[in-house]
Amino acid sequence: MDKAKRLGRMRQRRSWRVRKSTHGVAGRPRLTVFRSLKNVGCQVIDDTTGQTLVSVSTRDKSVRDQVGYGGNKTAAQAIGKMIAEKALAAGISQVCFDRGHYKYHGRVAALADAAREAGLQF
User: Fold this and answer.
1) Average pLDDT over residues 82-86
2) What is the value of pTM for the model shown?
3) Which architecture, in CATH terms, is 3-117?
């Protein structure tokens, strides 16, 4: 099997394993994280309706002006703070954290800690 295919399958299996225990409902939606080399983003999703309630990314024009480079911890902390502010404004105070296939360290942990400090409960 091709190495890239094998790695993709391993990522998908890790993602399923994490998702199995984190299911977002209307009262407690799911906070998902996306991380690439140059950007960080997250969404708050209600899995019962399949709708994205709130989203923030370093690719957004307003965020890009504030953050600059989106591939570091300071950008992840800014995104965590912004997602918490938007979620609280939308009436969402509790979420379940879905890290996807990423390890909980570095930018993912910085985003989660900043969201907690800004008022979101995990």
Assistant:
1) 96
2) 0.85
3) 2-Layer Sandwich (3.30)
